[in-house]
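Dock magnesium ion; give full complex structure.
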Amino acid sequence: MVRSERYVYRFGNGVADADDSMRALLGNKGAGLVQMSRLSIPVPPGFIIGTNACHHYFKHGTLPPSLTKEIKAAMQWLGETMGREFNNAQNPLLVSVRSGSVVSMPGMMDTILNVGLSQSSIDGLVSQSGSTQLALDSYRRLIQMFSAVVLDVPKGDLDQVMTAIYANHSSGGLLSDDALREAIHQLRAVVLRSTGEEFPDNGDQQLQLAIQAVIESWSNERARFYRRLNGISDDLGTAVTVQAMVMGNAGAESGTGVGFTRNPSTGEKEIFGEFLANAQGEDIVSGARTPVSIASLKRSMPDVYEELSAIVMQLEQHYRDVQDFEFTVENRKLFLLQTRSAKRSAIAAVRTAVDMVAENLITKDEAISRVNPASISEILAPQLDFTTSYPTLLTTGIAASPGAAVGRIAFSSAEVVRMAKQPDHDPLILISHETTAEDIHGMALAAGFLTAHGGATSHAAVVARGMGKCCITGAKEIVIDKAASVLRIGDQTLHKGDWISLDGSTGRIFSGQLLLRAPDEKNEALQTLLDWTKDIATLDVRANADTPLDAVQARIAGARGIGLCRTEHMFFAPERLPHVRAMILASSTEDRQAPLEQLLPMQQHDFEALFREMSPLPVTIRLLDPPLHEFLPSLDEARADLENAAITNREVRKFKQLTERIQALTEINPMMGHRGCRLSITYPEILEMQVKAILQAAINVIREGYKTVPEIMVPLIASAEEMSWLRKRIDHVASEVFAHAGMSIPYLVGTMIELPRAAICAHTIAQYVDFASFGTNDLTQMTFGLSRDDSSVFLNHYLEHGILPSDPFVTLDREGVGNLIRIAINGLRETNPEIKIGICGEHGGDPASIHFFSTLGIDYVSCSPARIRTARLAAAQISRNDSHISEMPSLMAT
Ligand code: PEP
Ligand code: MG
């Protein structure tokens, strides 16, 4: 005989037809109720219709035929348990019908309370509860909820009735019996007007329609949107909980509350939450009346408070996690309605994880897995404080570097520099179409950057992350009128010097001066948690650091070396730029020597500082990468300089030479042009200067007693022939330096892999290198053929329409770019099994991408100092084979 599938599982009053292992079937809420019932915690009894019924409904368009019989039997049991009867006018059984998936989607689906009540059973409820008020109030709530959810009566029309009734009749937020009767009368009239039929007063009909509506709410617009936003599968389906009503609205010794076992903002161990006397659940959410703190129960109902504290602590011990619970008190009798793992701030997540280890509730490994790595920036960077103000949101751009900045508007780097010269100046925000390497001085002085163009790896974004500053890019609604020193967003106009507030963690831009909450850099719990990762992580985290100051921050954050030093950033210091320009303007190799000789000691000095700071950890220094024109002024600036200078023949000659050179170096497509290793091939003397500076610096610090093995990295290699040519040059310069110094030291030569050709031909390139590091910014750009600097406008459309799952410059595209990396790693290891492999693009600081890289067996990721702690935590979670990343949607949902 074929047994039909089971859909209904009972709980409460000593019965539990299921257990926690059936969470996917029961949903989170259902599983919590079953578990509480197993722990003998008082829950109103009821039953769960499993997600299998929902799957059936969406597959066949109807509920499973056998479900009706199962529900009938369960309702019979429930009536007997409660000493009441469903659909009985004298002694009615009322139930709630609630949704609940295995992933929490708060507020997205529907709930209906007081199902089973009708005009004819109001008197029965009065004699059951002794309260006319309760009976009338429960019935008007049923009409409101049921009509909106099941009968599609416009919620606004129903709310309007209640708003008017409250306005005219309420005293202290409560309604008299007459007012409630009037409300019921008017609500029923709205239903009749809207549907053409009377409100259904038959319990069976109510129950069936309510169950169906709750199941259907799985695919309502907002639920589907929420799932898309949080990466939750549409296939999970919702369970339905049908549960005996307990009446929080039964009088002064009744009420309803929500709470947490620990403070969800700070993590402090205290029961935290709200209670509203004489109320049902939705009253707390609706804000019509103001709840009091749960702690006030200590005075008003101490026995209830004590029982509640003991129960929720028991739940925390059982689940070994902070619980978010809902409860109802009916005439001083306590019932738990829900328990689940609590959402919490990053600070609370870290603190509770560490505290729970001290309390022997969880292991260190578990504590590490409890914290979302991406949320750490909330602790370490300043945040906008919304508690005291209601700011005007101007627009939203790409959240390119987390943290927040509040300051006065400046429209160019030069303007920032000028404004920063004022004594006691306010913080400044640099706003421009985009930034270039030349803006570095203004960027160093600004508190944050906002660009109208660019994406997550545009210049402004990369520099901001490197500096640990807040940055928003691709704010495409901003129109900047530089000449008039104004920006427009819709009908708002802001001028130079006006206040603006940026939230780099969400990309939101506000007008005015919001308050800033300071970062908690010394957060002890976070330090403890990160210390624990040291024993676990197998993937090293290095820093992208260009200056000794970056190196100090990288070490404090726990970096295991420098994975990328972009040497060009050292060329922009005011005292260096003239020499760099002289080097570029030189028309022959001989003329280039003099400026290079000026630059050599400066670079050497920088490298010495880096080596000292990082000793004995590795330091990877990349040879010059950007196109040379980036170091020259624009034609407009050159002209302006000439106008300001005394017009002598010499000045004019200089101007002519400069403009010719600018024109000669101008490329239509500089990102694919004369940059990277191509510079070292056409101007080998620049490579020679840099290699000399690196090796002489290493020799000097080794002589001082420090330890270092310099790693020289060549950017933008496409072929083995390029690498072979350059390796010979580098080794030749090294032998000269060693001969001159009278000592030789070990050094490594490596390549960046940032072109698809290099990835595909990595097995041939591997013979000439000791290490390889993936520049995933350029590799993404070149693989997609998508500019990292100005594709944000259409990229947004791709993201909106789901054509791309996420911004590929933020989270690595596994299918395309990831596959190229896989091919490259296989090739590299095939030729050179000992080769050291790293990642130094921005993806090196993105937890989801780190997760992917770890599956490829790389040695390290390298990221900006501000993201090192995030990367360390992500690396530790992976090493213990943690599933945190796939669990993130449920943890992140609010
Ligand atoms: C890269 O391309 O990923 C990289 C690290 O180099 P840059 O961002 O300097 O081009
Ligand atoms: Mg690059």
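Observed: Residues 434 and 451 are 5 Å apart (CA to CA).
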